[in-house]
Amino acid sequence: MKRKIVFSARQDHEVILETMNKLKQVEEINLILHDPTKEFFSLSEMPKSFKEADLIIVKVRNECSIDLLHFAKIHNIPTLHDVNTVLMCKNKIALDYALRKAIKNHSKKLKKFLMPNSWNQSLRDVNKFKEWALPKLPIVIKSHYQHDKYNRFNFLVQKIDDVDIFCEKYKIFLYYDVYIQKFIECDGYERKIYVIGDKVFGIKRENPIYIYLRERPDKINVDLIEREKFEITEKIVNLTQ
User: Fold this and answer.
1) pLDDT value of residue 168
2) Can you list the domains of the chain with their CATH numbers?
């Protein structure tokens, strides 16, 4: 019997297209494709193919993707990934909690890995925020959620007057709680680690904050920052485990 698999992802991405084409070639799979940027639902009449799916694979793109994962959880349909994991990864505060717990629980293996001090805060009362922030400078103000590119920012505060610049630039976000990290100087690169099964990959790019400090541009398009692979060491493998 063929297994019914729903694959929900934006279908104009080359990696997604290649993955879909490979899944189509598996005779044991009945593949149902869904594009969350174009295909939406009648909540009272979800497609029969979705209700009967053996597995739902979601490459999260927008809230429609999250909606589908909630549907799957309520109806006990296995998913990749599950909604709780996705929501945690979207929320920088929740992810911070999870990483700190992992580092604490495996302190012997991960003694070389540290996280900067961090806080959740609000800028509704700017003067109160300045009073709180002053002894902690330099800090980076970050958006609470990281998957929404229209509501995402990393803003370096080196001196307290920088808070006024932030408030002017991002004034529509002053009613939202923010995530704040102590700014720690580094080599100027961000590194992301990807774990797929037993395989570990590393991609690095120049940190936008360092680009700003060097060039002072009005805006930085992070999609245009060059990316490259970096070597995966034994310490990083320990971290992924």
Assistant:
1) 94
2) 3-89 (3.40.50.20), 92-182 (3.30.1490.20), 189-240 (no CATH)
